[in-house]
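Question (not urgent): is this output format expected?
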Amino acid sequence: MKVALTYNLKKKDASKPADYFSECDSKETVNRIISALENKGHSVEAIDVEYPTLFSYFKNNRVDMVFNIAEGKQGRFRESEVPAVLDYLNIPYTGSNTFSLALALNKALTKKILKAENIPTPNFQLFVKGDEELSRELKFPLIVKPNCEGSAKGINKTNVVNNKEDLFKKVKECINVYKQEALVEEFIEGKELTVGILENGKAIALPILEIDFSSCKNSGEYFYSWRMKEYQGNSELGLVPTFYCPARLDKEIEDKVKEVALRTHRAVGCLDISRTDIRLDKFNVPYVLEINPLPGLDPKESNFPLMAYAAGMKYEDLIETILISASERKRLNCLIP
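Got this back:
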């Protein structure tokens, strides 16, 4: 199969916020995906979507499938940019479609759908200007997040607030820096879990990954902040969480968490792959924080491959499964009259 790999590379730009390129991939990840596909017998060409070659490449080159890990260039619908181009050119690609990618990047809109589907998610309020009155339904502690960002961008230990003064200070900061609405939601105390969904004929939940932050006390970070994700494993900064995969859960709770992740995957309309972040409260209620239809595939550091490894998969098998799932969907669509 002739495959084009579409991606964005991490960069350094002093004119941008420190977390601006956090969603993008490293050259090492791009090379590992290329190697995995080639080891499975595919021919691969990598296309950096930051350059204006995207349209000209697909205009002049026929491919059987695009393996898409591109985050897009900018804006609140950026993850949909490359799939939208591919849809226009009628070129099949791996992963979710334009609608699901745009939806999932909008945290508040996603949470409305989850609530409509009776999927537990923390109570929330969206702040557009920053001077709205706080809903009486919300209980402190609260956490403030940019509404349309991924990779924990804009989130650090000061985003968890316990009073109105700190709340509105952080809300206004979030709106001013990220030029978008601020999402405020109740902070759920409890186990941090993430669940990978992989489609291979049908959608299945991989072994649940538990992230234990009790070893990170010196850093002051006790949840997945941007610093935690960016510098994970740095002992000098105290950013050394402990991972348990499978998570330390009894079978009944494990099944409940996996079912919630599967329902979230379907509610958002994800395809091939997704990763759902969940907090398990003291009553063992699994609250969905957000879903990522385009999870990281760094073979050493990303959560999704870690869960695949726990399921007995090799990295090459994971990449091939994603590709085959998309190929089968293409085949079935061709059979529809």
